[in-house]
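Researcher: We're teaching a course module on how sequence relates to structure. For the next exercise, students receive a sequence and then see the predicted structure as tokens, so they can try to spot secondary structure elements on their own. Here is the exercise chain.
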Amino acid sequence: MGGHEPRPKIQGKEVSGTSSVLNAFFNPRGVAVIGASDDPKKLGYEVFKNLREYRGGRVYPVNPRREYVQGVKAFKSVLEVPDPVDMAAIVVPKKFVKQALIECGERGVKAVVIITAGFSETGPEGARDEEELVRIARKYGIRIVGPNCVGVMNTRADLNATFIMPAKKGSVAFISQSGALGGAIIYKTVKEKVGFSKFVSVGNMADVDFTDLMEYLANDPETTAIALYVEGLKNGKRFMEVARRVTKVKPVIALKGGRSEAGSKAVASHTGSLAGNFRVYEAAFRQAGILVADTIDEMISMARAFTQPLPKGRRVAVLTNAGGAGVLLTDQLEARGLRLADLSEGTREHLRSFLPPIASVRNPVDTTAGARGEDYYECVKALMRDEGVDLLIVACVVPTFAGMTPTEHAEGALKALREVRSEGIEKPVLAMFMAGHVSEKAREVLEGNGIPTYERPEDAAAAAEALVKYAAIRLNVA
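Model: And here is the predicted structure for the students to work with:
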């Protein structure tokens, strides 16, 4: 249910070696952790512990002072690690990073994550040290993520080359210029049961940057949307060129940090990047087809929407069992430039035939609180079949009124969607189930069937707007 139209591959020449080499960050046949530790207080402990869950290849600890790390035979150098080693994570003090990178080059490792900080974000001396790392990488044909980063994840392979908890499995790829903020968002989304396909903390972007990763992820079948937290760009021209191509095949959503003058100064001290004028970035993003989010919640809400097909217009139908929810959704939709669909007389007559007299059969459709799962089944069928509806939002405020089960409204909606989609009706559907933990099981039912489900009207409306705006970019619809 809720599948996509097939997404074409990006046309045109890729950056040399980008796809094959970057794939080593997400699907390595072997990984070396340089700086793996037995000390729980060190980052090398967490990185190695997390990577031990990886299903795609062997993970080797490198520590010259230890024979075993966390019960696994250790190696004094990456040069001693047996084949194959496609990726290395460097988690050693800064003074040892250069030598570790040289040894990776001599060993033939092509993908290196440098988690260690203390480079360009600290000033001119650190920037010179970072430039030297780049020269070494170029000499050996290495691609670097970082330095000063949290690391990378591929949830579908249980690859967690970071020192934070793993994200839940999902279909949104998230690239963050701030490691700590990226980590906080992972923790937040785990609690909210929202998943990601890939996560990359790019850090200082000495080498691999947003542009490289967008290009790679555009052709990643496990990713339906790409979310970016951006503070600054180092090669705006190339970013724009690639973004224009990527957004033709896959949605990109950006949250820009450093919008204010004070925020721009904070960016410079954070990653050493120049934030630039927000309005310039915003205009450039929109010109490239990138959707712009104003908050973290909005970015996540927008990105999650793309498990759904694209709408053919901006006419939204709202189904709810409480008038207040319909009113709030209507306000949010209108504020975002969407409009309520005018339901046909045939649709309204059908709704009158089974809903109580006090129900509203105009959009938003208010079934009243007594509506059961079978009422949602009939309403969803009717609204999806209405030719004046481009997108449907199914809202449920209190799902357990008068002996109702927690999931019956969700199950009724899903039954209807299966039926209409078997008829060839492919319209996007979003859900809003608002009753906190009481609605948790219903949200799980919907999410498990590919229906993005939100708790707040503003989040559901942001998702609807993202679908409509991206449809305009992709399908050239109004």
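Model: If you want an answer key for the exercise: Residues 1-17 have pLDDT under 50 and may be disordered. The chain has three domains: 18-145, 151-306, 310-475.
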